[in-house]
Amino acid sequence: MNDQGMATQGGSKRKYVRLKATNDPDETRADILAVAQEQFARHGYAGTTIDSIAAKTKRSKRMIYYYFSSKPKLYKAVLENAYRGIRVAEESIRLDEDDPRQSIKNLVEFCFDYHFERPSFVKMVMGENLNDARFVSASDEIKNLHFPLTQRIEKCLRKGYENGYFGRTCTAVEMHMTITALSFFNVSNQATFSAIFDIDMKSPAVCRARKQEILLAVLGRLDTKLDDGFSTEYR
Amino acid sequence: MNDQGMATQGGSKRKYVRLKATNDPDETRADILAVAQEQFARHGYAGTTIDSIAAKTKRSKRMIYYYFSSKPKLYKAVLENAYRGIRVAEESIRLDEDDPRQSIKNLVEFCFDYHFERPSFVKMVMGENLNDARFVSASDEIKNLHFPLTQRIEKCLRKGYENGYFGRTCTAVEMHMTITALSFFNVSNQATFSAIFDIDMKSPAVCRARKQEILLAVLGRLDTKLDDGFSTEYR
DNA sequence: CCCATAATGTTCTAGTTGGTACATTTTTCT
DNA sequence: AGAAAAATGTACCAACTAGAACATTATGGG
């Protein structure tokens, strides 16, 4: 792989990429990053030791400091990499279907699947929240990554409301939060929920049912007219 | 406080409770437990040091080992205490209203508020999930605490469906999961969401709107008939 | 009032962990 | 080929941490 001598996606600025891989900084960086994500996700920031990362790496501990300088900087690199992943993936969601309900369905399906298939991303985000989002707050890159999606959702919601597909509407951020919450929780709290209610939330059947459930709640939110005889205002 | 010489709620088995509080095991235990919950919630299991707990306690580190033997046992005590708290509180939710939609509303409101007001409980649960629910799985007490609520929810859902209040129904566990997910996420991911979308999710206005949003989704789920022209089956 | 015991304080240690100093090999450029 | 620079390996340390050893005080029954 990468034996064409072409530039790699990594941050290396060398003119010519070496063909032999005895010393391979890009590979080393990527290796460290992948192992670090796995470890930080599983054991949290404090629970992860640089030694444990190094042990699972093809290179030595020295390399972690060589490329990432310190534990917090390594963590930050992992986190930004993770957020970049979901934001890029979101671009491919189809939100311009003729029937906006189909767009919302696409959104739910993407969100559910993305989280379900990437538990270590979910755990990274959980870790950040336990840490009061210290690293997310400090990263301009992460904070500037979300605008596109909410704007597209807003467009979709407006279309659905104006064309009479949705009886109600809500803000794009609220919609995004609802869908994300349901998709996220399905993974983030899988361990305790599975243990307490004695179900296997990873099984295809349960997973399928849950996805359908989420879709019903989300579409129900946009569709319902329950004003008849029951006020939803809080007393 | 507790100057009547009556038995305290703690595990002490002394016949007579001391009136002076120079040595006060119940108080010491409770103090340690509260501080420990706060610390474990904020910094996770690995991130919390016994020394840091001791420093915030009125007593010394020695007492932590005196009453709780080890770090994992202290953690387990904190966790069981936290779960006991919510299960007991759940008993007071009114789920037998004439209008089952009101029951569901009560449930949503309770769940939302309980989590919102107890971020450290939420964080404990997050920590457990990051740890693959190791302690929850090992605690029979926690696992046997949930039955009452789901049974009551099921009764409420059946009544609502049979009496025509709900156009659809679902299992009690699904309903519980949906409501919990939305309420839980609102707290668990507050930090990253607030940072990324630049909103203050702790403000009363945002909080109120969010609660309403959740209620609409949940009731919408039970109410909607969207079979007209749009199938929710996955293709 | 005295003593067994419960409750608390102080000091130390063995093991870990983030990070560094120093040494060595590999690659690139001329 | 040979020197400079990049990449990697090894050995080590200072700080921290869970827990234990040892010492002391407070309490309540007789």
UniProtKB/TrEMBL annotation, chains A, B:
<dbReference type="InterPro" id="IPR036271">
    <property type="entry name" value="Tet_transcr_reg_TetR-rel_C_sf"/>
</dbReference>
<dbReference type="InterPro" id="IPR050109">
    <property type="entry name" value="HTH-type_TetR-like_transc_reg"/>
</dbReference>
<dbReference type="Pfam" id="PF17938">
    <property type="entry name" value="TetR_C_29"/>
</dbReference>
<dbReference type="InterPro" id="IPR001647">
    <property type="entry name" value="HTH_TetR"/>
</dbReference>
<feature type="DNA-binding region" description="H-T-H motif">
    <location>
        <begin position="49"/>
        <end position="68"/>
    </location>
</feature>
<dbReference type="InterPro" id="IPR041474">
    <property type="entry name" value="NicS_C"/>
</dbReference>
<dbReference type="InterPro" id="IPR009057">
    <property type="entry name" value="Homeodomain-like_sf"/>
</dbReference>
<keyword id="KW-0238">DNA-binding</keyword>
<dbReference type="Pfam" id="PF00440">
    <property type="entry name" value="TetR_N"/>
</dbReference>
<dbReference type="GO" id="GO:0003677">
    <property type="term" value="F:DNA binding"/>
</dbReference>
<protein>
    <submittedName>
        <fullName>TetR family transcriptional regulator</fullName>
    </submittedName>
</protein>
<feature type="domain" description="HTH tetR-type">
    <location>
        <begin position="26"/>
        <end position="86"/>
    </location>
</feature>
